Amino acid sequence: MLSSRKWNDGRHWRRFAALFSCSFLIICFLIHKAKGESSMLLKPEIEQNGTSIEGVLYTPNGEGPFPTVILTHGFTGNYTYITGNIAKELAKAGFAAYAFNLRNPDTRSMLNTSVLTEAATLDTVIDQIKALDYVDPEQIFLLGESQGGFVSAYVAARREDIHALVLYYPAFVLQDDAKERNPDWDEPGHIFQDDPSFGVSAIYARDALSFDIYEVIANYHRDVLIVHGDRDTVVPLTYSERAVSVYDHAELKIIHGAGHGFYSGEPFRISTQYATDFLASHIQ
Question: Do 29 and 101 reside in the same domain of the chain?
Answer without folding.
Answer: no
